Amino acid sequence: MVSSRTGSFLARSGGVNPLRRPRLASTRAAVRARRDWALDLRYLPHHLAEICRRAPSRRDSGRLRLFNLDVHIGPIGDFRAITAPMGVDLTDWTISGHADVIGRHREPVLGFNACNWSRLSPRVVDKFLDRYGHYLDRFDGFVTTTTPAFSTLFLRLQKPIIALCATRYEQPFTDKPHLWRWLDDQLRKGVADGQLHVIANNLGDQAYLRHFTGIASTYIPSLCSYTSAPYTPRDRHFAIASRSVACTQRIREDSRNLARPIGELLPARATWQERNSLRGWVHIPYNISQMAIFEQYWENVPIYIPDDKFLLDLWHQDPDGVLSQLSMYQVLGLPTDHLPAGDPNRTHDPGVIRWWLDRSDYGPRRELSEIVRFSSFEHLSELLATQDDEALSERMRQSNVVRQDAVLTAWEQAIESVWGRP
């Protein structure tokens, strides 16, 4: 039975029927979205009860209370693990399809959820604040990660916001120029007013944001210390993480099955401990910054990635399988030949691919210094056959000590500069 308080909340939501979904491209996708949303609705009573529950103020708890709404579990998980010991209490509503990986369920947010968040617009912001503004007012501020465009949901509340650029910031507006311009205006105004504080967890997104908006951001790389799954190799094989069928097949053949596709070694929803029980991972990257690589690096799992020259050669051979998500233009299948020279979305241009590689987490200025780079498939096979896993893992552990100290210090300074000491 729905309580009177719940009923009044639904009334303020304009009588919205949570089962109504946007029109989707295919019948199959629509059926799947409706099914998933119906599963999410199991948690609606708890969701509505939280909205109505009185929360302690910062004065009562002595801790900084922040809110997040996110479609990715990694970057916000990283923020939580880093800042909780600093006195930050984070309430995060995940609408990620991978929520179950961290033992969570997707939050049934009315009007802005896993099924329709890509329809973000000024009108959607108005309705969201109409429904949740009173609840959100209890927090000291907000954190957005995936995607930074979610900052527009909170700007009107006139409280500090940290926007963490962990992906191309304009998502979901890449193919909606008028909304992309609206977003840029909102972000610039938020920064100019001193309300919005932008941090990038990789050099690529930092440069990308500045290219389109002129906004300067602070670079603080990911740590990903939340996995709690130490490197304990029990399987002699290396996993191949690749979206290129040709690369996967060649690596497998040249290594004589020492390296094998992920699906042959692990279940679809493998735990971090299962993933870290392999000897190591060979990555053919689809992006210049991937949370899975940081997760493995933190646990000192040996990682192998093509060097930049070889990676560019592989991209030439298979652009749909190698570095295939540098731009949302690639993800959405949008043409890029009309874009001006120097646009980071001109991903048909080898010069742009090099621009992205120069800013990768594993590139010339790489954060992850102990990743092993290989210059050919033959070189990789030799490395896999001769590498001292234990020694490599120990070097990674030592580099993580230095990385952790730098990242924690940077976040302490960032939090204090925005909210003061928690």
Summed up:
The chain is α/β, with parallel strands linked by helices. The protein is built from 17 helices and eleven strands.
Layout of helices and strands:
Layout (H helix, E strand, L loop, with lengths): L3 H9 L14 H14 L3 H9 L5 H4 L2 E7 L3 H10 L4 E7 L27 H15 L4 E4 L16 E5 L11 H16 L3 E5 L2 H11 L4 E2 L15 E8 L2 H10 L4 E3 H4 L6 H4 L2 E7 L6 H8 L4 E4 L1 H10 L10 H5 L17 H8 L14 E3 L2 H10 L2 H31 L3
Parallel strand pairs: 1-2, 1-3, 3-4, 4-5, 5-6, 7-8, 7-9, 9-10, 10-11
Give structural notes.
This protein has helices at residues 4-12, 27-40, 44-52, 58-61, 74-83, 122-136, 177-192, 203-213, 245-254, 262-265, 272-275, 291-298, 308-317, 328-332, 350-357, 377-386, 389-419; strands at 64-70, 88-94, 141-144, 161-165, 196-200, 218-219, 235-242, 259-261, 278-284, 303-306, 372-374. By secondary structure, the protein is of the alpha/beta class. Helices cover 42% and strands 13% of the residues. It is built from 17 helices and eleven strands. Strand 1, helix 5 and strand 2 (88-94) form a beta-alpha-beta unit. Strands 2-1-3-4-5-6 form a six-stranded parallel beta sheet, with helices on both faces.
